[in-house]
Design a protein that fits this description.
With 412 residues, the protein is α/β, with parallel strands linked by helices. It has helices spanning 7-22, 25-34, 53-64, 81-89, 102-114, 126-133, 150-161, 176-199, 215-226, 238-246, 254-260, 276-281, 300-305, 337-340, 347-371, 380-393, 403-410, and strands spanning 44-49, 68-73, 93-95, 119-122, 144-147, 169-171, 207-211, 230-234, 250-251, 263-266, 287-290, 309-314, 317-321, 327-331, 375-377. It folds into 2 domains: 2-178 and 345-393, Rossmann fold; 185-340, NAD(P)-binding Rossmann-like Domain (Rossmann fold, 3-Layer(aba) Sandwich), CATH 3.40.50. Helix 8 crosses helix 9 (215-226) and helix 15 runs antiparallel to helix 16 (380-393). The termini are far apart.
Length: 412
């Protein structure tokens, strides 16, 4: 925690923040458009997100819009200490550092909630779950929340289904300008980055097994194919399995894929995707990793605690020698490989996701009573506005319908 007050580290973080901000024009446009009106003035906003250079642009933007910003990490291993130090130097209440223990991670979320934020912005729903079920916070006034990722949306919807949702939640993850670009292009690229930094092995010619063909899986599969890999997809959803097949990927069960894969990437948000029996069936030298939000997709406990021996052979890469003599390599202890072993998504992509967050926060402030205690998707007008901002930032122009075309569209 002392690192948060390190001036030299803070200056490094400032440089990273400036680099990210220079490449997040979409978010800059959103912040600059709203700055004069100070729409968040006097409001405390609680953020539980990966503390990266891209996130720092969102947090600084919220501060520029008048908010009292309080933040913690959305994962114990995904805080960049220089960014945390920079944010602290700018007056943001930051409770995060790299390589937190589970207990420290939980403590940090408590610190954010103790500031009594009126809006929660979450990634994985840990803060929202605590706000709902920890007796210390069950009566705290919260206008609403936003959720960033698939795993968190699943948890929030489960709370809603049981009739226990206390306030409206906008699932930013479901915005087209989020899942199409963040999940697909962002995770696709950052997964390759994380795996290369961890293992530094060739992708070309390798059999890469991608578990799950949602937006994240699509992006990972496409980028691995672009690296020259032979990509295998595993799925439990018949429509997605068919889509992967029609997209030209080999589709099979994990039991079959385990025997022939060289590199494994789990992208499902579900538990027990790669289990003990799969790990035992893998060939020696296989590399396994996860880019789903929680470390539940791979049986990391079996690898790390029940192997004959384990040792870190490279930063964020553990060699696990099984009792059958095979060597299996695990990236980042089974946590988010693209954030633990790399830096997460590129700033151009996160600019769209974080613009969704800012505009969704403002929407909740204005409409929370009308929404009621339910989960909703990002309103279409927000999605459209972000797409317009994105095209402008990329200097891309599109056509518009003329009067005749508009009349044709309205005629039967």
């Amino acid at each position: 925690m002392s690192k948060v007050k390190d001036p030299e580290l803070a200056e490094q973080g400032r440089t990273s923040y400036e680099w990210a901000r220079d490449h997040m024009q979409i978010l800059n446009n959103t912040i600059n458009r709203l700055k004069k009106s100070q729409p968040l003035k006097g409001l405390t906003i609680g953020f539980c997100l990966h503390i990266t250079k891209e996130t720092s642009v969102l947090l600084m933007g919220a501060k520029e819009l008048g908010a009292n910003v309080v933040a913690c990490a959305g994962n114990p291993l995904t805080t960049q200490d220089d960014i945390a130090a920079f944010l602290a130097s700018e007056g943001i209440h930051i409770y995060a550092w790299g390589n937190e223990t589970t207990q420290e991670y939980d403590w940090c979320i408590d610190q954010v909630l103790d500031h009594k934020p009126i809006i929660l912005t979450d990634d994985g729903a840990d803060m929202n779950v605590k706000a709902h079920f920890d007796k210390r916070y069950k009566t705290m006034k919260i206008l609403g929340a936003t959720e960033e990722t698939t795993a968190g949306v699943t948890r929030i919807k489960a709370i809603e289904k049981k009739g226990k949702l206390r306030y409206p939640v906008i699932v930013v993850n479901e915005a087209y300008t989020k899942h199409m670009f963040d999940n697909r292009y962002g995770t696709g690229q950052s997964t390759i980055d994380g795996y290369l930094r961890a293992m530094n092995l060739l992708f070309a010619s390798k059999r890469v097994v991608v578990a799950g063909y949602g937006w994240v899986g699509r992006g990972v599969a496409e980028r691995c194919r672009g690296m020259g890999s032979k990509v295998i997809v595993t799925e439990v959803d018949a429509v997605k399995g068919l889509e992967a097949h029609m997209d030209g990927f080999e589709v099979m069960t994990m039991s079959e894929a385990a025997k022939i894969g060289d590199i494994f990437v789990t992208c499902t948000g579900m538990t027990d995707v790669i289990r003990k029996e799969h790990l035992l069936a893998m060939k020696s030298g296989a590399v396994v990793g996860n880019v789903g939000h929680f470390d539940v997709e791979i049986d990391s406990d079996f690898l790390l605690n029940q192997s004959k021996s384990t040792k870190e052979v490279r930063p964020n890469l553990d060699e696990c020698v099984l009792k059958n003599g095979k060597k299996i390599y695990l990236i980042g202890k089974g946590r988010l490989a693209n954030l633990v072993a790399a830096e997460g998504h590129p700033p151009e992509v996160m600019a769209q996701s974080f613009s969704n967050q800012i505009l969704s926060i403002l929407y909740i402030i204005k409409n929370h009573k009308k929404i009621g205690n339910k989960v909703i998707t990002v309103p279409s007008e927000i999605d459209t506005q972000i797409a317009i901002d994105a095209l402008k930032a990329f200097d891309v122009k599109i056509d518009s319908l003329n009067k005749k075309q508009l009349a044709y569209r309205e005629n039967w």
